[in-house]
Amino acid sequence: MSRYDLLGLQGKCKRDPEGYRDDVLMQLQHYNALHGLFMLKPGKDFKEFADLVGFLAQVAASYPKDIPMFHVGLIEMLEKHYALLDPNLRRSLVAALILLRNRGSVQATELLPLFFRLFRCADKQLRVMIFRHIVADIKSANKNKRDDRLNRAVQNFLQAALKDENESAAKKALSVITELYRRGIWTDARTVNLVVDACRHSSPKILIGALKFFLGQDEAAELAAAEGEGEDSDDDEAKKEKPKTGQGTAEGTATGVKQKDVYKAYQQGVSRSKNKKQAKLKRQIASIRKKNKREEGSGGDARFAAMQLINDPQGFAEHLFNRLQGGSALKFDTKMLLIQVLSRVVGLHRLHLLHLYPFLQRYVQPSQREVTRLLAAAATACHELVPPDVLEPLVRQLVNQFVHDRARPEVVAVGINTVREICLRCPLVMNTDLLQDLAQYKRARDKPVATAARALIGLFRELAPSMLEKKDRGKGADLELGVKAYGSFVAADRVDGAELLERDAARQRREAREAEEAAAEANSDDEEEDEDGEDESDDEDGMEMDSGDEEEDDEDDEEDDDDDDDIVIPKASSFTVPVLRSELQARGLDTKGLKPALVERMQAVFEEEAAEAAMAAGRGAAGTAA
Predict the structure, then answer these.
(1) 309 contacts 193 by C-beta, under 8 angstroms
(2) pLDDT tens-place string over residues 143-153
């Protein structure tokens, strides 16, 4: 039967399965005969066999008893002869298996070993098809409810696939893991530790993919992996293709790029005008893709940092450092990725990797390639648990190479800013002489240098003002404040920012108190009006008694007024910084910050205490009157 006859029979079988059962069995016998021939010797005349496979895959769901093990023959053929089959036939067989899997006729664990073996084929279209199916299949399985059983089985298989000696299969396994993590399907610690295992692969390309995942650069890589591998030769031809147009595509008329604009950019005008139109069109398409990508990634909560889910960060850091030291065959970009990931892991988990800082010290010089990224990594790797003796040679090398009179202004600014970032994480590395020397650059003519020096001065005004010169300490500096000794730890007794909650609670109490006072005044006015409307025929004795009572009430009111007048709210701005800090510490409040912040915090406390005292006085006066 021809292809069109099979398509017609396919529609009839779906409408009336029992009526065309004999025809399907006849085609099944024909398929078995061709399958036996292809198993003996894969031939080039495959069109009839491919059409027959597609037909049986479509109608297999309608005849589950007659075609129960149809997928077994396809899997057997692909496992034995996948390298010898024609690419079109091979894609047809894989498409049939994907169709059977989507309809529930095949389990995912039966197809994964075959699909990862097919990743070794030099067929880009086939690899893209399989990659998209695996991601979509796992996503659909976890759509309504998380399928832990399937996830564990697939993760176990991917763990074995990451250790495959074949680079293509291991790379695709890593791509599947990172893509599922990026889409929020697999966000557990086991997924992250699978990527950690990928860093131990001998292939540099797999190492780069795993490192980019930890740096958050995996989205662009996985987008490229979904469209096709970047190392394929036909990528250059794809870049030269014209932008596609059509309804519903990112480049189509539905999103702002019209077909008329594409025609004008590539068909009308001279070459100079065409180049301008094409550049403008590419910018529009890039903005549309960026917007769609941002909208796609904006849904759901932000994903948890992957580095915090590593089970053994110390072992992972030591492995990366050993590979960095012995990686003479690695490219410079790969080494930079290793340094960035290593510094982030050390800084995040506060690890002890003391050989890292002398290693970075060798590259601290202005002429070094990518020196800013290197300095940022050096600052990121510092934390308060690193011994100051280990960091002092690094800081000394940094100051000697970057901060001197013959250096360019931007070099000096970078050096001072890097020193400030290191001191922010490990203040003990700074000494008094070096700090005062760097503070002299605050009067530099170049604004970036002066700004960097003033930022360093501002940092040590909060950390240790006594290390600065008197003119740089600022007004009201607390000379007793100093850097804590190495290894000291002070447990926090309150949450940072809790004073904001206290201030808000005081404001709410003040508003409630004002509302109560307003209500009390309104009630007193009503009572006075009622008293004025009473009968005035009372005797004189009663009037005298009332007048006496009124005089007593007036005296009490005057005493209350005098008490209210005696409550004076002090001005916190008149206090010095040591006094403010001592007052705040006595009340159990936060003592950090400069004087404006301390004044604001103390003034709020004074107002709250004055309001509470006024309320207490009012309640006492009311009890006395009663």
Answers:
(1) yes
(2) 888 888 999 99
